[in-house]
Amino acid sequence: MENQPAKPKLLDQIRDRIRLKHYSRRTEDVYVDWAKRFILYHNKRHPQEMGKQEIEAFLTWLARDRQVSASTQNQAKAALLFLYKEVLDMTLPWLGEVEQAKKPRKMPVVLTEREVQVLLSQLPDAWLLLGRLLYGTGLRLLEGLRLRVQDVDFSANQILVRDGKGGKDRVTMLPQLLILPLKDHLLRVKQVHEHDLAAGYGEVWLPEGLARKYPNAGREWIWQYVFPSARLSVDPRSGVTRRHHLDEKGLQRAIRQAAADAGLSKKATPHTLRHSFATHLLQSGYDIRTVQELLGHKDVQTTMIYTHVLNKGGRGVVSPLDRI
Prior knowledge:
CB, 3-stranded antiparallel β-sheet, Integrase_SAM-like_N, 324 residues, DNA_brk_join_enz, Integrase/recombinase, two-stranded antiparallel sheet, 49% helix, 5 strands, DNA recombination
């Protein structure tokens, strides 16, 4: 009797299932990490031996003892539900009963136009164009980093955001002030790409289905990242040497340092530029639906948060003290 192949370890099963469903590498790493932490918390018991009580105990521990945010707790819950539903194939009645942590509603940090100008003036040249693009278009950080050459339409003065949050595509404007800087930037990027091709590289990551259908597309200029990394790297999934996009942590650090150098009293992040973009459009008189489309919000209620930012203290009410 032939030996049966060994069944993959649980964490490898999670990775295989995530890749089969074409989830991102980021999601893969996060879900595997949460599964590992869940198992270790329960003294290395197999998840098949556990259920609702153990999941709730783990999530409670995260919130009470580890004091994680609601979004982090919900991320852990999503990872564990994926483990039970997709990997262990356990359709259990308690899966939908595990309570979702409620995120506290916080007002977004918004910079004035002058503060944005000062912040951008403190950014290093290596990050300035990306910072200006995020503010000028309202893109999320990863949406900006994942832009491909063909997504920038200079003839129509617009940018196509592919597979944004929620898997949706959308179009936003291309600021006039960035047309020439972007064209110059892409000329330099193209030189790097041609050098990579000459050295036997030049391939960029593509979604699996697209890569299968067009096996040579990854080396074409139109598919290259607008903001490529300065270094080649080996894809841990495929082992192929490619040039990925810039690491988001670089801009996060640069903006944090720029805010400090500018003497801003507000905590600024790349997402602050998106909040500021939306608020400044509303201040300029653009309607809420237009801003909703540009931001890619599914529900207009999400966009409505910026109307509250526009109100002055006390919801726009003038204090009687100021009337004396």
